[in-house]
Structures are given as structure tokens and as C-alpha cells.
Amino acid sequence: MIVTLLQVALGGAIGAMGRYLTGVAVFKLLGAMAFPLGVITVNVVGSAIMGMFAELAAARGLTHLGPFVMTGMLGGFTTFSAFSLETVSLIERGDMGLAALYVGLSVVLSIGALFVAMTWMRGVLA
User: Fold this and answer.
1) Among 3, 17, 22, 12, which residue's Cα sits nearest to residue 72?
2) Residues 65, 10: contact at Cβ < 8 Å?
3) What are the 10-residue block averages of pLDDT along the chain, 126 residues in total?
4) Domain containing 38: what range?
5) Crossing angle, helix 37-60 and helix 96-125, to 10 degrees?
6) Which of 44, 96, 114, 116 has fewest C-beta within 10 Å?
7) Residue partners of 105: CB distance under 8 A and separation at least 6
8) What are phi and psi of 124, to 5 degrees?
9) Which among 21, 19, 72, 12 has a CA at the least distance from the CA of 43?
């Protein structure tokens, strides 16, 4: 059990650093924005990677890496708590339209990215 916890912790640290660096990169590329593009980017990309890894792990017997990759790295990389905070911030600023757009895009694009990535990986592994 301690080994699994260490895998989750290490993966989480790597994922969190990736999330931070992605946010910095989006900010440097596009500047400050009212729309939380950094958070939505990591959620969509993380969902796509989750889909690819889930298929790859199942097909190649790599499910033992799940705690490190899925719970740790991708759990640290994606940002549902940050998503929730960004949504509430938009609502509190009175940007109901942006809040609704943000929630809708986050959910649809993240689930879509996971589905497309799983389908793509099935094709790659076939």
C-alpha cells in the first residue's frame, strides 16, 4: 500500500507541475483573459490523455500503472476544484453567459476529448 501511495504522490506532483506550467504558457501566449482558458485546456487535454491511457492500459496489461498515471498525474493535472472556483468567480462577477459557456464547453469538450482519444487509441492498438 505504501508503494501505491508513493506512486500517487509522485504522479500528483508531476501532474500539478504540468498544470501550473500549462497555465503559465497560456497566460504568456494570450495574456490575461476573462475566460479561464488555462483551466479548460488542462481539463480537456487531461481527459484526452485519460482516454488514451485507459485504452492502452487495458490493451497492454498496464493497469498497474493506474495509480501513478490516472490518479496521480492526471488527478494532479486536471482541475475540477479550480474549474468550480473559476465558475463561481464568473458568476459572482455577473458574467452568467461566460459561466454557462465555460461549464458547457468544459463538460462537452472534456468528455468528447476522452471519447475521441479512446477511439483513436483503439485504432492505434488494433
Assistant:
1) 12
2) no
3) 97 97 95 91 93 94 95 93 88 96 96 95 95
4) 2-125
5) 20
6) 96
7) 40
8) -65, -40
9) 19
The dihedral built from the CA positions of residue 84, 91, 23 and 106, taken in this order, carries a sign that is positive
CA distance 31 to 24: 10
DSSP-assigned states of every residue in 97-110: HHHHHHHHHHHHHH
Place of cell 504558457: 25
Number of domains into which the chain is organized: 1
Name the pTM for this structure. 0.82
Whose CA is closest to 125, among 65, 51, 14? 51
Nearest to 117 by CA among 51, 41, 45, 67: 51
